[in-house]
Amino acid sequence: MTSTPLIERYRDLLPVGDATPVVSLGEGDTPLVEMPRLSERAGVRLVAKIEGANPTGSFKDRGMTIAVSKALEGGAEAVICASTGNTSASAAAYAARAGLRAAVVVPEGKIAAGKLAQALVHGARVLALDDGFDAALSIVRAIAERHNVSLVNSLNEFRIDGQRTAAYEICDALGDAPDALCIPVGNAGNVSAYWLGFTAYRDAERSARLPRLYGFQAEGAAPLVGGAPVERPETVATAIRIGKPARGQQALGAMAESGGAVDAVSDQEILDAYRALAVEEGLFCEPASAAAVAGALRRAAAGGFGDDDTVVCVLTGHGLKDPDTAIEGSAGLQRMPARLEAVEEALFA
Ligand code: F0G
To answer: Is-contact 192 254, C-beta < 8 A?
Structure first.
């Protein structure tokens, strides 16, 4: 049997009808994995939602399956997005699947190598701007208004509808919502989608309670923490290098209503969490994803969770997206001649 499309698994909660073509690559149903070593260090149960296990390696696929299916249903000729990388990879793949053209607009030099490779291999038009994500988004919004192309950024409500399903899966796996959810925040669509998902599931009586939502931005790109746009956002976590989040107000409302908060973590904290996940838990995520874990560890150290809390950290994207960051901070290679004695000496001497 082949994988059930996300749309079919939660059809009753999604805006699709009998006439909607289902464009699927087998997204969703991602693993929920205990993090025993980091839990011990934090003094609270930390669990990871592995969104890098989606077809293109990020959570974007949950929203893209709906957005591209609806674009096809609506007769769009093409899809377009601005992106820090993952949205462009996902849009390119789902557009290819649907037989639609895709155009992606990205900040030049600031998108991780794996993401660029994905957009290119799926045949998207890739336009690299001499400016950041925020400028790219305002340009594609204007293009989508003037032409018959569907905007598939998270401003598109269908993206948000699809991304809600991660909250449904977490409730199904745990038997109810967790006590808290830690999540990286960039353009602020995903944290907004999780909140809508948790509330919709509770309202449908498929879960009993709601979690507190803690969103984390990178210190150099933290407009929601600082309360003002950031003109030149900068962070090692390029996926969340965003100074004017399109869904900022909605996300702030969601976090406040949940009893949670938004906070910023430094690039050093992000990289420390990124290494700890890889070395201590065998989990390879991209730097932006590690911001959620950096934030959870910081919050735990400050006594910000209850002893019996279950805290889910959303690992939004796969580590292979950004091989450069992985290799740069690592121990590196040890070169040697192809002789048994040399290898033996290196390993055991
Ligand atoms: N984590 C990863 C790996 C991302 O790619 C993004 C966003 C986020 C977290 C933040 O999610 O924007 O909904 O708050 N990436 C977008 C992109 C901006 O273009 O791929 P958000």
So the answer is: yes
Q: Cα–Cα distance between 27 and 93 in angstroms, integer?
A: 12
Answer yes or no: pTM beyond 0.70: yes
Distance 239 CA to ligand 1 centre (A): 5
Per residue in 146-186, pLDDT tens?
999 999 999 999 999 999 999 999 999 999 999 999 999 99
Amino acid at 71: A
- Nearest-CA residue for ligand 1 atom 1 is 316
The residue type found at 260 is: G
Q: Fill in the amino acid letter for 36.
A: P
For residue 249, give every residue at least 6 positions away whose Cβ sits within 8 Å of its Cβ, in sequence order, or none: none
Residue 80 to residues 51, 106, 116, 132, 272, Cα–Cα distance (Å): 23, 11, 15, 17, 35
Expressed in angstroms and rounded, the spacing between residue 199 Cα and the centre of ligand 1 is: 22
288 alpha carbon to ligand 1 midpoint, in Å? Answer: 8
Residues lining ligand 1, Cβ inside 6 A: 58, 83-87, 154, 184-190, 239-240, 286, 288-289, 316-317
Evaluate the CA torsion angle 99, 103, 109, 110 in order and state its sign. Answer: negative
